[in-house]
Each structure stands twice: as C-alpha cells, then as structure tokens.
Write a structure and sequence with these properties.
single chain, mainly alpha, 4 helices, flat
C-alpha cells in the first residue's frame, strides 16, 4: 500500500490524543478548583482565589502520595468533567426548583 495509507491512523490519532489530553487537563483543573472551593466554603470563605490556592495545594500533596493519590485525582477529574458537561449542556446555574431553601425575600 501507499505511504498515506500506512500513516492514515497516525493522522487521525494525534489530534484525538491532543483533544483527550487537553480535556483531561482542563477537567482536572476545574475539579481541583471546585474541590478547593468546597473545602474553603466549610470555613465560611467565599473567595474563588482561596479555593484555587487550596485546590493547587491539594493537587501538590496528592501527587506525593504513591497509591492513594491516583484514585483521588481520578475522582476529582470526574467531578471536573461533570462540571464541564453541566456548563456545556446547561446553564451551570441552579434553578428555583434546585434550591434547598427559598430566597430570603420570600420568607
């Protein structure tokens, strides 16, 4: 066969691999930021940059743990993919039906 037919799989595989790696990297970043925001929200802090710092510190600590770090990073990546999917397919904001308490002005 020709040279093009031998390398046709590589022509398709490289862009797909870059897309998967880029999506995974972004999903991990979103997951760590969301996890950091969830942790700092427990302490009453409502600043995104603090959640970012906590998420980055958490990622650095988990990278040092040999066997427990990988499953936790996988879980956080899945959370990030869920956040990306919700943002891409929906508004990413809660509707009135999803709120656990009514707004303060309706009490």
């Amino acid at each position: 066969m020709g040279l093009l037919a031998d390398h046709a799989g590589l022509v398709a595989a490289y862009p797909l691999a870059l897309l998967v790696l880029g999506t995974t990297f972004i999903a991990q970043a979103i997951g760590f930021i969301a996890f950091g925001n969830a942790i700092v929200a427990r302490f009453g802090v409502d600043h995104d940059w603090v959640g970012l710092l906590v998420g980055v510190a958490l990622a650095a600590v988990l990278a040092l743990v040999p066997y427990a770090g990988a499953p936790v990073v996988l879980l956080i990546t899945i959370v990030g993919l869920g956040g990306m999917t919700r943002t891409a397919l929906g508004s990413g904001k809660r509707t009135e039906r999803e709120q656990s308490m009514p707004p303060a002005h309706r009490l």
